[in-house]
């Protein structure tokens, strides 16, 4: 007996085309990830080009492009200059010391110095911090470069590059909160507890 034909032939729904996931990283995160990839990939030529801030280099333009299509020229310049500072810090080095960086520029300057004194206990670090905080509304690029060079020479961890890009973008229109935070991170004392330690109720 022949098979009874189905009343309806139902086709399988077509498989929707796959689309790559959207990159949800912020512009500053994209810049930081790209910069750290250059060190991990030993892209020394690209890093050398980034250390030429006054030249129109392809790496410099790539760094600026992370600011996004709607960025102002000043915002694009922030991204390019942060890339320059990153490249200065990693000059001639394969270091991987907390490569994304740690803390604000104020917190980083607190690491400048030697074993005998760092941060607010180091005259050189204090001078750098005063110059950064005394700047007008213009971003103090020269003093920032000096700070990064001192961090490099002290083998101290750099500031968080994503945070620095955010801070300097804010500085363009409202520098006071950024300077206040840097100053607080540098000058606020850190305290260690003098409370005696106890083990199983016994005081040491």
Overall description:
There is one protein chain. By secondary structure, the protein is mostly helical. The protein has a single domain, classed as CRISPR-associated protein Cse2 (Peroxidase, domain 1). It is built from nine helices and four strands. The strands form two sheets. A two-stranded antiparallel ribbon has the order 1-2. Strands 3-4 form a two-stranded antiparallel sheet. Helix 4 (73-89) runs antiparallel to helix 8 (161-171). It starts with 26 loop residues before the first helix and ends with a strand.
Report helical residue fraction.
40-55%
Task: Give me the Rg, rounded.
Answer: 25 Å
Spatial arrangement of strands, main beta sheet: 1-2
CATH homologous superfamily descriptor:
CRISPR-associated protein Cse2
Number of DSSP-assigned strands: 4
Strand content: under 5%
Parts with pLDDT < 50 across at least 5 consecutive residues: none
What's the domain count?
1
Please state the average pLDDT score. Answer: 85
Question: Could you describe the largest sheet, including whether it forms a barrel?
Answer: 2 strands, antiparallel
